Amino acid sequence: MKKKRARLKSADLFLEPDFPLTVRRHLNHGSSRTLHSHEFHELVIIFEGTGRHVTDEEEYGIEAGDVFLIRGDTAHGYAETRGVHLVNILFAPKRLRLPLGELRDVPGYHVLFHLEPRLRRQHRFQSKLHLAVEELAQLSTYTTDLETELSRTRPGYRFIARTLLMQILGFLSRCYSQTHVSEARTMVCLGEVLSYLERNYAEAISLARLAREARMSQSTLVRTFRQAVGTSPIDYLIRLRIEKASALLRRGDVRVGEAALGAGFSDSNYFSRLFRKATGMSPRQYRARYLAGDGVSVPGAAGKTALGLDLAGDKL
Predict the structure, then answer these.
(1) Greater model confidence, 125 or 273
(2) Are 72 and 34 in contact (CB under 8 A)?
(3) Which CATH architecture has domain 5-97+134-177?
(4) How confident is the model at residue 299 (pLDDT cuts 50, 70, 90)?
(5) CATH says 241-291 is which class?
(6) Residue range 29-46, pLDDT digits in tens
(7) This prediction's pTM
(8) What is the 3-state secondary structure (H, E, C) of 165-216?
(9) 170, 28, 39: which is closest to 109 by C-alpha?
């Protein structure tokens, strides 16, 4: 039977519409069978207690040290809570203009914000991030600093609050990269592959090299990668290279051949064919329309993976 739902609106939670960031602390979170979804992302940090995390379809145990992301369209709630002290960081990354693309070389970023939410049901929540006591204490300091900054609203608070949020996201991404939770290791290995591609997209990359990076056989990597990301590693690399080349083209002073080479394509004709297939226009047409202010989309945004992963970079 479908559970009761509520929809939380940004206007009801964020004091300033153009600054969608707030911290909600619940010292003794109660139970409710009414689920809620929202127009933004919710980063959940469990500091104390135990309970059940409830979705439309399933329930999972939670305990102190658990950290997980709830994407906007996911309806959820809590049941059987016992002494649950949790903090929710509510934010809309794109509207905050967070430079999350700069975290793409950290394996744990891909896991925390893309892979684990995507595979949560399949893994029955066993791959979620679980912090050690020392890590949880450090995170407590960071969240308190963010909470204080937002509550005081002193001059410059937006700048500092964004910085503190980025510190939290970077810290959690690093923690996930180093997790010892066995159920999460496969996803971390995939995160390492994604980060390797981000760092080395312009180099010659073989499936054998990616398999070594993932510590898997080639067949296992292809199967696991496709299940998690929605495409093959090589197709993902091609999309990534097209997105990087498009960024060079948007500068206006880079030739098509130079953009192709800079993104890892050794043959500019091959690059142009792939670019047209991805965008519906040639690289020259794309550059001209962008510079003319025609509002062309960034390649990659239209070709999202099954994760909803935007290769243009700053969306969660």
Answers:
(1) 273
(2) no
(3) Sandwich (2.60)
(4) low
(5) mainly alpha
(6) 988 778 888 888 999 999
(7) 0.81
(8) HHHHHHHHHHHHHCCCCHHHHHHHHHHHHHHHHHHHCCCCCCHHHHHHHHCC
(9) 170
